[in-house]
Amino acid sequence: MKNCLKISLLTNTLRLTPNAFLLFAFFSSCSLIQPPTTIPSYIRVQRCTVKDSATHDTVSSNITDIWVDDNLDYRGIYQVPISVPILQTGPTTISLQAVVEEDGISSNLLPYPFYYTYTVKNVNLQPGKLDTINPVFYYNSAITKFQWIESFDGTNTLETTSENTANVHVTEVKDSVFQGIGSYEVDMTAGQTFYAASKSPTFIPPASDIVWLEMNYRTDVPMDVGVNFIDPTGANPLQPEFISGVNPTTKWKKVYIDIGPELQFFNQYQSFQIYFQANASGNAHIFIDNLKLLYLE
After folding, report:
1. DSSP letters for 133-202
2. Alpha helices by DSSP H, 101-179
3. Are residues 129 and 150 in the same domain?
4. pLDDT digit string (tens) for 145-176?
């Protein structure tokens, strides 16, 4: 459904490498009389950080790539860490946008719409010189609205469905907690191998078509994430609309899931739930933390 509806802002845009950039510049400048070779300057982006706007504490993120502009001219998308060649000299404004993998898919690269662009003015670029910029991103509080934040620190707004057979609880065991006091744990054992839960109560769809879910997770089995659309008459939810899945991982990971297209397509429904579902063939664990549902106002 999403692929039919979504028109990506990055259609035909490729993740670049410095060599690809210089090769493009070379062929663009070829003529019968070869012009002098331009030596680029370089911007080094070693890492990206996201901080809370209020506390300035570092928060979890998974920024895989960076969108680079110099003096408002687009220069490409590069996988971090990277040294980006820039064919400018002298005082230059460098703008960096955080790029994430939509639904955890490496080929679906999108600027994350909820972060401020990181801008550094008057970077004195010199041919052959390397300048390092490690951007710190903040949520754009002027346009970002959080419809749901669940940290599992003394709370749990996920309710298992009638089909669920797994044991669920909030754990405070240090080795099992990603951040803060607690994390959500699913224990699956023989005869109790099906997990199904959803957010309660339901949400009213926002007017915006830009709606994302952030989630940290660690899981022994694949897990589905989707939306239940609630019939306005009060009947049972429809067949769940699958949006994305996450694969098993022994390390905590962060995923950004785009649910906006589904909410727009099923806009006749007045409320919805986020659901999580998994099935195991034997003993398995799932851990979830830092759920955030956000939209642009």
Report:
1. ---EEEB-TTTEEEEEEE--SS---EEE-TT--SEEEEE--GGG-SSSS-EEEEEEBTTB-EEEEEESS-
2. none
3. no
4. 999 999 999 899 999 999 999 999 999 999 99
